[in-house]
Backbone:
């Protein structure tokens, strides 16, 4: 009896290898998938074939399907009607457009290996309690499908408690943070989020400032202090800004701490001082200076002001669209 089971298992493995070969997988990829997913050794080619065909019918491009299966070979072993179909149906109800479902599965096929009842429904209910509107639940999941693989108790609740500790306690606040940057839920509180918040406090941000950063630019909370935030802070110091001025810059325009020094900060400061002939302390009063495009806005508007011998503050120069800028300085007939 035992030898018959071994023979049957060997036949299943041989059959599944043949199944993959027929669909263009090379030997290296097949071995990697079997090593990654032990279930494949006993997988039935009939189930694998049914699931493969089903994934095509829901809109996954045939040329991308091998990549999808390679990422998560387990989806070929799951019961079609009990596992894959219910998850796809549930995802479809969350989608704004039908194309979103095959796209999110292509990006993160592990979605299909989770249970609707045990994983997806509790996850959606958890986000609703945080103030994420029902209509936005799909957006959250489709932006970061890995959310389904995180434990609510040991992972997500920790992040929520941390955000609440910053003072984001009013109804819906944390939900808004998640919608702005659902990837924040993937970071470690102790290794990333708390060190970042402590660094921001150390450079002079108040509790209220920190709340504004988390609400409006949550991606900053996710950046590495030593690799990104501290070097940007050090660069601003070398430019001549004092500690209180840097705190004002970060409060006024938090992305200044994560912008590329070489491609963003340095060229703008150089333009401000060398071309515009202004003092660096002017950007402390108008930190949004770093938000504007160098070519499309700064250089163009500086050129027009210089041609017409107009002097004004940075905010007067840069606020508003091109029409407002022209009207403000009566340049309608002079712009070329």
Residues:
């Amino acid at each position: 009896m035992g030898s018959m089971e071994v023979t049957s298992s060997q036949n299943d493995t041989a059959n599944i290898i043949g199944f993959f070969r027929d669909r263009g997988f090379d030997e290296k990829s097949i071995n990697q998938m079997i090593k990654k997913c032990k279930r494949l050794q006993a997988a039935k080619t009939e189930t694998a074939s049914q699931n493969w065909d089903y994934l095509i019918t829901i809109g996954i491009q045939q040329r991308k399907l091998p990549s999808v299966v390679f990422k998560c070979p387990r989806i070929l072993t799951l019961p079609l009607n009990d596992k894959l179909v219910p998850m796809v149906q549930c995802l479809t109800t969350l989608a704004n457009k039908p194309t979103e479902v095959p796209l999110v599965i292509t990006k993160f096929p592990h979605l299909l290996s989770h249970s609707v009842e045990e994983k997806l429904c509790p996850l959606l209910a958890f986000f609703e309690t945080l103030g994420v509107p029902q209509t936005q639940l799909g957006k959250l999941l489709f932006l970061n499908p890995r959310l389904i693989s995180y434990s609510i108790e040991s992972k997500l609740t920790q992040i929520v408690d941390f955000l609440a500790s910053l003072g984001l306690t009013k109804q819906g606040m944390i939900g808004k943070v998640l919608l702005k940057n659902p990837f924040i839920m993937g970071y470690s509180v102790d290794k990333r989020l708390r060190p970042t918040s402590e660094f921001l406090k150390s450079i002079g941000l108040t509790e209220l400032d920190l709340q504004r950063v988390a609400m409006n630019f949550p991606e900053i909370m996710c950046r590495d202090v030593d690799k990104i935030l501290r070097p940007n802070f050090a660069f601003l110091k070398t430019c001549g800004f004092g500690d209180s001025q840097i705190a004002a810059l970060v409060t006024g325009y938090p992305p200044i701490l994560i912008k590329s020094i070489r491609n963003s900060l340095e060229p703008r400061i150089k333009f401000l001082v060398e071309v515009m002939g202004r003092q660096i302390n002017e950007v402390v009063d108008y930190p949004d200076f770093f938000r504007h495009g160098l070519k499309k806005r700064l250089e163009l508007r500086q050129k027009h002001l210089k041609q017409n011998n107009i002097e004004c503050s940075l905010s007067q120069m840069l606020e508003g669209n091109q029409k407002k800028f022209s009207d403000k300085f009566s340049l309608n007939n002079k712009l070329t």
Remarks:
- Residues 2-22 form the longest helix (21 residues).
